[in-house]
Specification:
This protein is α/β, with parallel strands linked by helices and about 450 residues long. The chain has 19 helices and 19 strands. It binds iron/sulfur cluster (SF4).
Amino acid sequence: MTARAVADVIPRGTALIRDAGVLRRHGAGGPHYTSYPTANDLTTDVSERDLTAALQRSNASGRNLSLYVHVPFCRHRCHHCARTRVTTETTRRAEPYLSRLDREMVLASRHLERAREVSQLHWGGGTPTFLTLDQMSDLFDRLDARFGLSNSRDRDYSIKVDPRDADVFTLRHLQALGFNRLSLSVLDLDPRVQRAINRYQPRVLTEQLIDEAHRLGFRSLGLELMHGLPGQTQESLAETLEQVIAMAPARLSLSPYTHRPERFVSQRGIRADELPSATEQAGMLETALSMLANAGYVHIGMETFARQDDSLAKAQARGQLSRGLNGYSALAPCDELGLGVGALSRLGGIATRNPMSLGDYERRLDAGHLPVERGLRLTDDDRLRACAIERLMCDMSLDLGALGQEFKLDASAHLHDALTRLAPAEQDGLVRRVDQRLKVTPLGRLLVHHLAAAFDARAG
Ligand code: SF4
C-alpha cells in the first residue's frame, strides 16, 4: 500500500492518536491484567497444601473449569521472542515432559469433583504444534481421562498454531481431537520484516491453513499480528493488514513489540536502530485501527479485535464479556487451572504459579508434589479491585455504584486512590468520569490496561 493510499485510509481530521506522546506516557509495557493480582505480585508464601485446599474449596464455586496446558518446546529461533521456551528439533524431548504433565493432572484432579464441566481448554507455549500428532492425541486423552473433557457445542477448546509446524492434516487431527478454535501466529506478512525477526513464513502457508480451517468449520479463527517490529513501516503494516483482512479471520490480535534485549537473549538479534520510532508506531496504530474498523472489526480492547458476528463482539455488546488468564472470553468466568512449566492458576481464593524452570518443575513432580512455586491468597480488597479491572477492561466502562452495591461499600471512597491515579489519563482523553460512571474513550480502548493499572494497589 502506498503512502498516499494509507493517507486515504485515515481521512484528514479524524486521527485518533493525535499525539505519539500519549502512547509513550500510557502505553509502555506493564501487565495486561488477565488477572489481578498479577503474576508479578505472587510470593513464595503459598504451599502445596494451600493449593490442594483451594482446589477442594473451588468445587463449591458453581463455576466450570478452564484448563491451560503449557507446551514449552519450539523448533524456531525468532529474534522478537520473549517467551520462556526450550528450543529443540527433537520431538522425543517432549516425552518426559508429557509424563510429568500427566503426573500433575493426577495430583490436581483428585481434589476436583469429576462432574465439573471443562468448558475451556487452551494449549499455549512455546509451540503446541511442535508435538507430533500422536503426542497431541496422547495429551488430549490424558486430559480427558483425568478431568473429563466436554463435547458441548459451547465449549471453547483452543490451540496456538505455528503455520510453519502445521498442515491440513494437523488441522484435521486437531478437529478430530475436539479443538474448535485456532490461534495462528503470523506477526507480519512482509518478507523483509520476517527476515528481520528470523521468521520466514510465506503467506501461502497461512492462507492454506485459513482456507482449510474455514472449510473444516472451526468455530473461530484468530490471527496474531505484531506492530513495532524491525523494518516495519506504516505502509508495510497496511499491506499486511490488507492481506489479512482478505483472509477474513474472526479474531485478530495486534500486539506491540517490546524491545528488552537485556532480559530476552533472542532479542539481541534485533538492533534498536532498526525499530520504528514512536511517531511511526503511532501512525501504524492509527492505520490499523482505521483499516480494521472499516473492515467491520470491533475493537474489543487493547490488542484484540473481532468481527461483529464473532462471539467476543456479541458478548461485549451484551455486557457479558469476561477476562481470565487466557484473555477475553465470551463464556462465563471459570475456575482456572494451569498445567505445565510456568503455568498460572486461579481458583478457590488463591492465585498460584508453577516453577518457570523446567528442571524445578520436573523435580517437584518427581518427588510426588504439585509443582506450585509462588502464589497469593486473595483478600476482599483484591476481589473488589479484580472485579473493577475486569468490568473496565470488558465493558469499557465501570459503574462504581453497581460495584459498591455488589461489595456493600462506597466504591468511590474505597477506590479513591485509583480515581486519583486516573486523572492524567482523563486529561489525555483516555477515560471520562460522569458521576458514578467511568467511560473509556476509543483511544482509551487501546490503552485500557494502563487504565486498569490505576486500580492496582500492589503496583510498586
Ligand atoms: S515466537 Fe513462538 S515460534 Fe518464535 S521462537 Fe518464540 S515460541 Fe518459538
